[in-house]
Amino acid sequence: MIEAQGLTKRYGRTLAVNNLSFSVEPGQVTGFLGPNGAGKSTTMRMILGLDNPTSGQVRIGGKRYHDLKQPLRTVGALLDAKWVHPNRSARAHLAWMAKSNKIPARRVDEVLDIVGLSSVAGKRAGGFSLGMSQRLGIAGALLGDPEVLLFDEPVNGLDPEGILWIRKFMHRLADEGRTVFVSSHLLSEMALTASNLVVIGKGQLISQSTTKQFVARAAENSVKVRSPHLDRLRPAVERAGGTIVDSDGGVVISGMESDKIGELAAENGVVLHELSPQTGSLEQAFMQITGDSVEYHTGLETEAQQVLEASAK
Ligand SMILES: Nc1ncnc2c1ncn2[C@@H]1O[C@H](COP(=O)(O)OP(=O)(O)OP(=O)(O)O)[C@@H](O)[C@H]1O
Questions:
Q1: What does DSSP say about strands 250-254 and 243-247: parallel, antiparallel, or unpaired?
Q2: Is residue 291 scored above 50 in pLDDT?
Q3: How confident is the model at residue 311 (pLDDT cuts 50, 70, 90)?
Q4: Is the CB of 15 under 6 A from ligand 1?
Q5: pLDDT at 178 over 90
Q6: Is this complex scored with an ipTM above 0.85?
Q7: Is the pLDDT of residue 84 over 90?
Q8: What is the mean pLDDT of the chain?
Q9: Runs of H (alpha helix) within 13-62
């Protein structure tokens, strides 16, 4: 479990993280979401003791990072996949990490197997693709068999196959009962990966909830309706307070539940060909909730769109 309380980090005039409090529970994947520059990496670095908070604190399993006797056995992290000596083999890199953390050498082959790199264990890590480097980084994070895992933007730059592998792997780690905390600004990917979300903007907490609640709270719910008798349904819906807008061979009604629309249709002898509730996407929810804390709207939408397009291929 990770618990942050009043976590604050100031770099000169920049307040990178501002009085941030949240908790991350074991047994599920928690997404750490926020636009570029929101303070995600800074927060992760403070969790890992790589940066000291200006004020506030963060604890892992009740302890501060600096008080952990063997940190790699409690928390593993993937912050930068390219953080590896280019001329070392994957196995040599992990063996060096294991040795410096008093982890038995046999664990190296175990983690290589877990991430599917056994067949290239003797190859130079400098020649690895980004996807293979990510796997190697994850193997390093798993060396100490830690309860808590942190991943900073793990799918950035990966192809759809690599993205899918990471997503499944995170679910597996959570199913094993670990605490998995993963930062991203790729909204659609987080919708598929995380069951819980900590959302920040400009260093401050915007929301902590399940992904479902986050989407339901923000996205405007509406109902798509197709009917040969729209001329009769339209006034009935409007009289009852619904808003009706033409759309794609039918109408979209908002401000009214589908049950109520069905009842109105029956009362007015209206035949329905379609009555389908539409739920909003994480993108819509994010844009609506983060509002003016999103500094770079265009970049954010483009990134989300890229992943949607990539996963559709
Ligand atoms: N070492 C540093 N010195 C000065 N300012 C910093 C430093 N690290 C981060 N910042 C600033 O703190 C703010 C938060 O940055 P951070 O990298 O934590 O955000 P982020 O949410 O991880 O963004 P991204 O998604 O772009 O990686 C930004 O304004 C950034 O410029």
A1: antiparallel
A2: yes
A3: very low
A4: no
A5: yes
A6: yes
A7: no
A8: 85
A9: 40-47
Q: What is the per-residue pLDDT for 260?
A: 94
Query: What size, in residues, is the chain?
Result: 313
Least confident of 46-60, 111-125, 241-255, 295-309: 295-309
Q: What is the mean pLDDT of residues 75-88?
A: 79
Ligand 1 proximity of 36 Cβ (cutoff 6 Å) = yes
Task: State the distance from the centre of ligand 1 to the C-alpha of 93, rounded, in angstroms.
Answer: 28
Give 115's contacts (C-beta < 8 A, 6+ positions apart). Answer: 135, 136, 138, 139, 142, 169
Residue of minimum CA distance from atom 29 in ligand 1: 37
**Residue among 17, 42, 296 to mutate when testing ligand 1 (max atoms within 8 A of CB):** 42
Which residue's CA is the closest to the ligand 1 atom numbered 31? 37
- How far apart, in whole angstroms, are the C-alpha atoms of residue 127 and residue 263? 64
CA distance 259 to 9: 49
Instruction: Judge if the beta carbon of residue 35 lies within 6 A of ligand 1.
Output: no
Report d(CA 225, CA 246) in Å as an integer. Answer: 10
Ordered by where they begin, the domains of the chain are: 2-216 (3.40.50.300), 221-278 (3.30.70)
Tokens of 209: 């909830």
Any bridge partners for residue 28, and if so which? Answer: 179
Structure tokens at 89: 């083999």
Read off the DSSP letter of residue 279. P
Alpha helices in 143-281 (DSSP H): 160-175, 187-193, 211-218, 230-239, 258-267
The verdict on the CB of residue 39 being under 6 Å from ligand 1 is yes
User: Is the pLDDT reported for residue 222 higher than 80?
Assistant: yes
Most informative mutation of 9, 17, 20, 40 for ligand 1 (most atoms within 8 A of CB): 40
The CB-side HSE value for 171 (13 A sphere, CA atoms) comes to 11
Nearest CA to 215 out of 28, 23, 31, 24 is that of 31
Reported pTM: 0.76
Q: State whether the beta carbon of 201 lies less than 6 angstroms from ligand 1.
A: no
Q: Write the Ramachandran bin of 22: left for phi over 0, alpha for psi from -120 to 50, otherwise beta.
A: beta
